């Protein structure tokens, strides 16, 4: 159903995953505004380049896992499709813990082709960014670049 919509940001060995500086800043600002609660967003773009995001409403205030309401999730996917972009990943914050996926994060992740980002905000002045790929039943840290592309 969403074949074109679902990206494969790790499919290219030659091009590294990237995130625009603008999106990175917006994610950080919004995660700070949501603190001490968890923040989450869908990330979209083309190929390996993330150039936009959609903040997701919190469906609970659980500090150790994130989940979305079905209608919110489908609405966000529809929005990505309308911009003719691809869904490339998700990000959520860990307001009180390091940016390491919890066992519940692993259990709740169903899109292995996408990138999985965690923003560690234990020390809000020095946020820790981690991008992961799900490989053989576990999250592997992936390097990425921050680009200055405007669009
Ligand atoms: Zn988590």
UniProtKB/TrEMBL annotation:
Gene Ontology BP term (one): proteolysis
UniProt-listed Gene3D superfamilies: Cytidine Deaminase, domain 2
InterPro entries reported for this sequence: JAB_dom_prok, VirAsm_ModProt
GO molecular function, one term: zinc ion binding
UniProt keywords, alphabetically: Hydrolase, Metal-binding, Metalloprotease, Protease, Zinc
The keyword Zinc is annotated on this UniProt entry: yes
Chain segments annotated as transmembrane: none
Residue ranges of domain JAB in the record: 21-122
Protein name: JAB domain-containing protein
């Amino acid at each position: 159903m969403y074949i074109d919509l679902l990206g494969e940001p790790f499919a290219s060995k030659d091009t590294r995953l990237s995130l625009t500086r603008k999106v990175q800043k917006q994610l950080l600002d919004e995660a700070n505004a949501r603190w001490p609660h968890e923040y989450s967003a869908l990330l979209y773009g083309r190929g390996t380049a993330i150039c936009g995001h959609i903040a997701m409403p919190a469906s609970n205030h659980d500090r150790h896992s994130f989940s979305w309401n079905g209608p919110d999730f489908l609405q966000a996917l529809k929005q990505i499709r309308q911009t003719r972009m691809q869904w490339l990943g998700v990000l959520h914050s860990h307001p009180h813990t390091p940016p390491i996926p919890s066992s519940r994060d692993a259990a709740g992740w169903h899109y292995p082709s996408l990138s999985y980002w965690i923003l560690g905000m234990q020390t809000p002045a020095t946020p820790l960014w981690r991008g992961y790929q799900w490989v053989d039943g576990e999250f592997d840290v992936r390097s990425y670049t921050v680009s200055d592309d405007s669009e």
